[in-house]
Task: inverse folding
């Protein structure tokens, strides 16, 4: 289980996140990407759930393929969106029966076209409720991860309240926290300090996304409430029409982030790959060369 990886006290825990493709061609391409990255020996690989739980079945299929065929430890995302307790319980049971022992428990984003999250009838309104439900159903037989927000959740910009919400999730049974993406490491170190101050002791893993396209990352940061250092944004904007230059700067910045984070005590790195292998491969290879991975 993933929680045991952090308990060993060995090298950092490095993991990759993917999302289920919508087409057969996309699935084949993702399988190639995962195989290409497997020789880097990631500690685990996670698969997102899709907007509104729309890729629920594909997530189940993909995590099983990752674990059985690719031979990697898989973690399935699970959200509260658009499902009743019984439906979610069935999904969790299927994961456990398939040998998937790791679940990333999230509230989830509002369904497409809706401005805010609304608790489904007969379902859950908060990730902490879902954590409690899974623990009641499966005890400690599953490792549960959850999300943390270094700059605060987009719906909760009060950082003190946000960290108390995280403490509620951890107290409900989270084993590990993985952060939302960020581009300034000061947010991570401050977040960890605030978490430790309220008694959160589980590993807090920084989530890093190498920038490949400026327009794409601008949309993403707006959606999740993350910010970008002005100097970085200015340089990306200067070369925004040069795809190679943007990608190179994105890799350089993410590598520098990872080096500082690991030297500053981060227990590992969770890479938001966007289903691509080159940037993640370059960064992790550099970290290995520097004996940080």
Result:
């Amino acid at each position: 289980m993933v929680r045991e990886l952090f308990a060993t006290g060995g090298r950092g825990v490095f993991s990759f996140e993917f999302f289920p493709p919508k087409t057969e061609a996309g699935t084949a391409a993702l399988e190639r990407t995962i195989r290409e990255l497997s020789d880097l020996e990631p500690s685990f690989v996670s698969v997102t759930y899709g907007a509104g739980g729309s890729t629920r079945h594909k997530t189940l299929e993909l995590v099983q393929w990752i674990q059985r065929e690719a031979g990697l430890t898989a973690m399935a995302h699970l959200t509260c969106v658009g499902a009743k307790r019984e439906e979610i319980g069935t999904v969790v049971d299927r994961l456990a029966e398939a040998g998937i022992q790791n679940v990333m428990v999230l509230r989830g984003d509002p369904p497409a076209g809706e401005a805010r999250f609304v608790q489904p009838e007969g379902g859950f309104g908060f990730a902490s409720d879902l954590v409690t439900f899974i623990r009641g159903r499966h005890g400690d037989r599953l490792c549960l991860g959850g999300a943390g927000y270094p700059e605060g959740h987009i719906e909760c910009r009060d950082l003190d309240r946000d960290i108390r919400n995280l403490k509620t999730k951890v107290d409900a049974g989270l084993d590990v926290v993985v952060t939302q993406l960020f581009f300034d490491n000061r947010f991570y170190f401050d977040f960890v300090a605030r978490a430790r101050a309220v008694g959160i002791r589980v590993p807090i893993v920084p989530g890093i996304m190498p920038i490949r396209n400026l327009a794409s990352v601008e949309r993403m940061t707006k959606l999740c409430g993350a910010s970008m250092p002005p100097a970085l944004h200015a340089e990306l904007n200067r070369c925004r029409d040069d795809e190679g230059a943007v990608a190179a700067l994105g890799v350089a910045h993410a590598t520098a982030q990872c080096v500082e984070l690991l030297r500053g005590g981060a227990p590992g790195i969770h890479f938001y790959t966007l289903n691509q292998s080159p940037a993640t491969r370059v960064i992790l290879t550099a970290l290995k060369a520097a004996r940080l991975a």
